[in-house]
Design a protein that fits this description.
Order of helices and strands: HHHHHH
Number of helices: 6
Largest sheet: none
Mean pLDDT: 77
Structural class: mainly alpha
Number of strands: 0
Distance between the termini: 20 Å
Shape: flat
Helix content: over 70%
């Protein structure tokens, strides 16, 4: 099993180093050309590189926006009856939109700091920190024991 992992890792390292070498070679050539010609060529290359460097962040931004939009759409679809009742009571579409935006802001305000804090508390509980044991978790290694049992380890 170890030999298979080492053989697969060897191929991955070769591919990774080759990609890094090719990227370094191309960027060096672009820099040499840009520096040699200067002026408008240099300006064009700078703008192109700036646009290229923003691309990963742009993809992440699009994914985040689409994720938030999908959550809001699912929230609206799930609350179809509630929206119908609000409309029957005379609530305008703008008021309903504000209700959902405020609900989303409240969930975001508490969820953003609350999620990592809960994850750290749970992870600390699973790792069995002495501080966690003092607070009153006598079975702090329970998570590790359950994981070992699930994997079939003794």
């Amino acid at each position: 099993m170890l030999s298979r992992c080492l053989y697969g890792a060897q191929l991955s390292v070769i591919i990774g180093l080759s990609a890094a070498f090719i990227a370094t070679l191309i960027s060096t050539l672009i820099g040499i050309v840009s520096g040699y010609f200067g002026g408008k060529v240099d300006l064009f290359v700078q703008r192109f590189v700036d646009a290229w460097m923003i691309f990963p962040e742009l993809v992440v931004l699009i994914v985040v926006v689409l994720g938030i939009a999908s959550v809001l759409v699912v929230s609206v679809v799930q609350k179809h009856r509630e929206i119908g009742i609000l409309r029957a009571m005379g609530t305008t579409r703008g008021q309903i939109l504000r209700i959902f935006l405020v609900q989303g802001a409240v969930v975001g305000a508490f969820g953003v700091p609350g999620g990592p804090l809960r994850a750290e508390a749970r992870w600390g509980y699973c790792r069995g920190y002495p501080a966690i044991r003092r607070v009153g978790y006598p079975h702090a290694n329970r998570c590790q024991d359950q994981s070992r049992q699930a994997l079939g380890e003794p």
